[in-house]
Amino acid sequence: PTQLAVEPAGAVVEYGDSLDVQVRTRGPAPVDLQLVWTDTNGVPRATLPLYEAAPGLYAQRLESLTQDGRYYATLRGGRSQRYPITIQPHPRVDTTRYTVEPPPYTHLPAETRLLGGDGIRAYRDSTITLQLTANRPLRGGTLELGTNRLDLQVAREPNSVTATCPLTATGTFAALVVDTDGHPARQPVTGVLAFRPDEAPSITIVSPGMHSFATPGAKVPLNIEA
């Protein structure tokens, strides 16, 4: 006599993401209401209790989904229909970092940043290392810099790939990752490469300070920072 309505009634989920499931009930209060997740062959992989979020409304989350399957709500004496979970086969890039190693003459340390909307700005002849991290293991990909094409190599983490190149020209770039099953990302990561103006250094006299005094013939050490 208890009627169950499962929401959503089937879902497509990104690899590694979670799915929030709600069950609305009508009629007598359910007893032992649970959410069951099975593989495509119907073998149960997880059985989780459904918690009451509001009168007649129950909820649970299926976390870290990495394979196709089915889910349904069950209670003492019955169950709902079975609904499919389909895992999106294409990888999704979650994080893009870049490391800039300035030219040796600048004596500046390398910097690592997240790729933002303003792209990558660095001094000419800097070395740029691009690292892309996806939601599933990768086997490589390609990086296009103008007319140049580089291969993305798997990093120490199986979900990351990298490529290194000198910054000798400005323009746009596009990086497309491929997972271990051969599925490319649905869209590349794009950005702009631009030169950072190489201006004259700013000079600061650290010591001696202003209004310092010295006797005639004294040796006064100068501390200058550029």
Helices and strands: which structural class? mainly beta
Q: Work out the helicity level.
A: under 10%
Number of helices: 0
Poorly predicted spans: none
Strand order across the largest sheet: 12-11-14-17-16-15-18-19-13
Approximate shape: elongated
Mean pLDDT: 94
Strand content: over 45%
Task: Compute the number of strand runs.
Answer: 21
| N-to-C SSE string, H for helix and E for strand | EEEEEEEEEEEEEEEEEEEEE
Q: Which terms would index this structure?
A:
single chain, 6-stranded mixed sheet, 9-stranded mixed sheet, 226 residues, mainly beta, elongated, 21 strands
How would you describe this protein?
By secondary structure, the protein is mainly β. The protein has no helices and 21 strands. It has a nine-stranded mixed beta sheet, with no helix packed on it. The protein is elongated, with a radius of gyration of 29 Å. The mean pLDDT is 94.
